[in-house]
Amino acid sequence: MCILLLFPPTLQKAYCLYLCILMCLTMLMLVLPEYLIHAFFCVMFLCAAEWLTLGLNMPLLAYHIWRYMSRPVMSGPGLYDPTTIMNADILAYCQKEGWCKLAFYLLSFFYYLYGMIYVLVSS
């Protein structure tokens, strides 16, 4: 009877681990397009001579290049290895990285929106 009480939490942990691996495999397909789109935006800022915006985006572009160059050895492109993502330190680092990048992209969106409205109103 006591063993049956321990079975559902064990299944829940296994289910969460299974979902973590599936999410990791899904994120593998999203990493390279994110980096390429960000590099494209930086090139467009360079062509438009938007120096402040380019300066704000260059640290993240440099981080993306460093992160991609120091990625784990895998068969395909990507950053998240399903076997090492189970490590609590790596998982916590990836979560912090995701939240920081989300904050950067959100602040960038409002900065770009402000710039667009400023140009439309001033002309």
TrEMBL record:
UniProt entry tagged with the keyword Transmembrane: yes
Annotated Gene Ontology cellular component terms: membrane
Annotated membrane topology: Multi-pass membrane protein
Main location class: membrane
InterPro entries referenced in this protein's UniProt entry, alphabetically: Cornichon (IPR003377)
UniProt-listed GO biological process terms: vesicle-mediated transport
Keyword terms: Membrane, Transmembrane, Transmembrane helix
UniProt-annotated location(s): Membrane
A Pfam family reported for this protein in Swiss-Prot or TrEMBL: Cornichon
Annotated transmembrane regions: 15-32, 38-66, 102-121
Lineage: superkingdom: Eukaryota
Alphabetical list of SMART domains matching this protein: Cornichon
Family, per entry: Belongs to the cornichon family.
Protein name: Cornichon family member 1
